Structure formats: structure tokens, C-alpha cells
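Dear colleague,

Following up on Tuesday's group meeting, I ran the structure prediction for the two-component complex that the binding team flagged. I've pasted the input sequences exactly as they went in, so you can double-check that nothing got truncated or mislabelled along the way. The C-alpha cells for the whole assembly follow below. Feel free to forward this to whoever is handling the docking comparison.

Inputs:
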Amino acid sequence: MEILDEIKKDYVTDLMKKNKRPDDREFLEYRPCTVEKGIFPFAEGSARVRLGKTQVVAGVKIDLGTPFKDRPDEGVLSTTAELLPLASPTFEPGPPDEDAIELARIVDRGIRSSNAIDLTSLFVEQGKVLMVFVDMYILDHDGNLIDASALAAMAALLNTRLPKIEGGQLIRTESTEKLKVSQKVVACTFSKIDSHIVLDPGLDEVKATSARLTIATTPDYVCAIQKGGRGAFTREELFNLVDVSFEKGNELRKLLD
Amino acid sequence: MEKPKLIIDGKRCDGRAMDELRPLKIQAGFLNKADGSAYVEWGNNKILAAVYGPRECIPRHDASPYRAVIHCRYLMASFSTLDEHGRSGPNRRSIEISKVLKEIFENVVITEKFPKTAIDIFIEVLQADGGTRCAGVIAAAVALADAGIPMRDLPCAVASGKIGNEVAVDFGKLEDNYGDGDMPIAIAPRNGEILLLQLDGMFTKDELRKAVELAYGVLPKINALQVEALRTHYAVKKDELDFRGD
């Protein structure tokens, strides 16, 4: 496997030098992307995102639970990611590894920082709040899991209905209203390959990546950033990619309507 | 809980100016058994870093024929905060931090020199006062140098962030908890490249730029303290070495 990865890495790097990408895209161009909401009616919210050959589904479950001790009047938001073994020959069964945890926490950070979900609106009564579980399941790994997962999570949240509460119990088959989502947060991920920077890296490009930068935005604010990989970015590259993220973010947001 | 006032008469809650660091002390070679180590006190942060290696890579299948692999374990002690007793062992937060810290050192350590080995970095947060991952970077960098591991640069880190519409550097615990955004950044000081960058909170384009520039303004000071710590540990003191007769 390692030999093949090295060959692919050289192949992609050589292409970049000729200003080309393996699938002939522009450097700052997304693969075709589709978002479908409400694909799993048993979940309170759900969505599927296809980004090129990457495929992610997200499900939202709403439970009744107790608030965190230091935030007694706020609901709970929990975001996790599962790198399912069926999605890639390199994913193994087992508890979430550092990649899965990082992925989930980047998506979580964007949603949390932007207050897209008003957690105080999830307060039910003293000691009782609604808990929102957003679980992202990776079904096909063809690169750029972060943007696809962020989009799936956001779409699923936008699709989420709040179950009826009666006698301290949730009645999931009857819903009172939709979950309020005040912001559409989207993530843009860039790969640095050699000295080139591309948006939405495919799997072969991921393998050739020295450094990765994810910038999550609302229309007016940057609400999460995560740099990954052993490589580095300069300040100028960062500021430039922030501009690109606002612009491309608006394109992604349209998919959520 | 009531949100405390973080800016009073143009100063921060602990009396600092916006671009002022908390007192930072670094000691190289703090431990006896580790190949390299460092202890950092930064505000009320108390952080220990130790380095072992290059040594045999465990688990073995992690080893690379091309370079040394770097393992990094960042952990907070169960008694490190003013909150209740913490659970021991890694959690999701510490696993993420360990990963991004590892990537910093993969950049600067000349790993190609030591194929099939591992370099293990352990960062223990004994007392946490905001900005522990940055303090961890500072300590681990000095510990690596103390272990004699060749590096392209000595990385340094600081977090800047947002308090209301103001941007400030080196957040304390209170600012961390009640501020409006936090942006840890680590760089390689010689070429200024960004090795770690995370952000939460809502930043406009201008605020982000300001936060980055503020961090770049103080990072050279932090780097100088790291170098000084190593110099103090290794330099021969005046009159310590001389011609000696019987």
C-alpha cells in the first residue's frame, strides 16, 4: 500500500507542476456536490451528501437528558464521526481514532462557535434539557471528508424536527416544531501540495498533501479553523484562503436551501 | 453563571495590556530519566514535557522505513483545574490536541535521519490556566532540543483571541472560558510559517488578521525565552571551567 501511495503522490505532484489536477478541475473548484435531506425518517433529522465519489450521511437524534453541571440552562450538542470500515480499505473497525475525533470536533466547532443551534432554546425544565446528537457516518472515502461531513451535519440539523414532550417523555412520532437553526455554517478545506494549494482535495490529492487547512464560515464570520498535516502555511496564504472560503462558502450554502 | 467583565478601563481582567504576555518561565532538563525534558510555568499553567528517543517504535507496525515517527501524548492531570476531579486518561479533546501537536513536531524534527524509530513526546498538564496546548508546544520544543534531537527550528506557540470587539494575546483561563473566540497558533520562528492553527468563536476577516498579527508580534519573545532556557541549562558558567593544577 505504501509503495502505491508514494507513486500516486509523485504522480499528483508532477501534475500540479503542470497546473493540472488528476480530475482536470481548477485549483479552487469543488467536485459536483449534492445534498439530500430527510433520507432516514426514523431519525429526527438526516441528510446525505455526495461530494464527487465521497459519500457521507448524517443522522440527528434528540433525547431528553440532564444538562452539564456548569450549564444548567442549556441543552447538549454532541457531534461524532464514524469512519466506517466499509468506506475505505484503510479504515479499521474499532473506537474512533484521532482522525475521526478531529473530523467530528472540527464540524462541532463550526456549529458551536456560530451558535447555529441556540442551546438555551433546548431547556425543558429544571434539570432536564434536550440533547442533540449529530452522528456523521462516512460511507465512501474519496477525499475531503471534512467539508462533506460539515455539509451533511448542517443539512441534517436543518431537517431536524423536535419530538413532542408529554409527561416527561418524548413522543417521537409527533413533532411540535423544527429545530431552530440560525446559521448555515459550511467548511472549506484546502490542501497544499508542493507549493500549490487546491480546494476540495480528492483522495489521491489527500495522499500528496503536506498541509491541510479547513476554514468554516457563516456569511460574515470565520467560525472555525483547523490546520492539519506536517506541512506549513504562510500568513499570506492564510489570509488569501480566508477570502476564498467566504466566496466558496456562499456556493456551498446554496446547496443547503 | 454571570459573565465576568473581561476588560476594565481598557485593561484585561488580570491587569494586562492587550498585547501583554503572562509571566513565562521555562526550565530545560527538568527530569532525570527522560532523554530530554522541560518544565514551563506560564501564568498559573504548570506543564511538563519529556522526550524519549529516537528509540524502538512500539507498536512496531507504526514504524516507517523512511523516517522516525513521532508520537505525542498530551494529557491533563485529574487535579489540574479548579473544577471537580477530572477523569484520567485521554478524552476526545486531548486526542485531538495530541494529533495537532504531533504534526508541529513532524514538521521541524529531521525525522529522515532516524528511519524505523519513534520519538515519543509526553506532555503532562499538571495545572491548567488557559493556553495549555501552546504551553505544551513550548515545553515539548525545549525538551526535544534538550534530548539532542536535530530540528530545523524551535517551534513556539501562543493563543490570541477575541474579547468583545477587541483582540488580545495569551488568554488566561477566565478569558478562555468567557471570551468570544480563541485562536492558538504555532510557528517556525525562522521562516514564520504556520505549523498549528485552530480557531473557535466568530471572527470577521479583519479581526482574524489582527489576531494573527498580534500573535506574530509576541512569538519572538517566547522563542527568545526558549533559547534562553536552553542556553542557561547548557552554558558553562563563568569561572566554572579553568586550567586546574594540583
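The domain at 2-255 of chain A is CATH 3.30.230.70 (Ribosomal Protein S5; domain 2).

Cheers,
M.
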